[in-house]
Amino acid sequence: QVQLVESGGGLVQAGGSLRLSCVASGRTFSGTFMGWFRQAPGKEREFVAAMRWNYDSTYYARSVKDRFTISRDNAKNTMYLQMNSLKPEDTAVYYCAAGGLIHYAPGNYDYWGQGTQVTVST
Q1: Radius of gyration of the chain from its Cα atoms, rounded to whole angstroms
Q2: Which of 27, 40, 64, 66 has its CA 20 to 30 A from that of 51?
Q3: Is 113 helix (H, G, I), strand (E, B) or coil?
Q4: pLDDT tens-digit profile of 51-91?
Q5: Is the dihedral of CA 31, 52, 28, 116 positive or negative?
């Protein structure tokens, strides 16, 4: 059974940093995308960042580029999202996802974590 478990969310002041983690278990995701998405209240789930499990190319939404960094540790089956210079508009539930064929499209990812809340205060 595939499981994705996120952690690392919380409350932070604007300008601060958080690091999210996503531990994957149950299968390998070689050749497909793993990504981070977020959903704010009343809004659709949106793409944040993605990378292939076994390649180093990374992809970012324009709104987070140069502030967020996606990375992975294959030995630990863990994906990370380092978030710096956080803004109030980054407030959302953040989800990790796996098994995607198109990095920015949430509908084509097969597996999702439960989400972790990130709140950025002014």
Answers
A1: 13
A2: 40
A3: coil
A4: 998 888 999 999 999 999 999 998 999 999 999 999 999 99
A5: negative
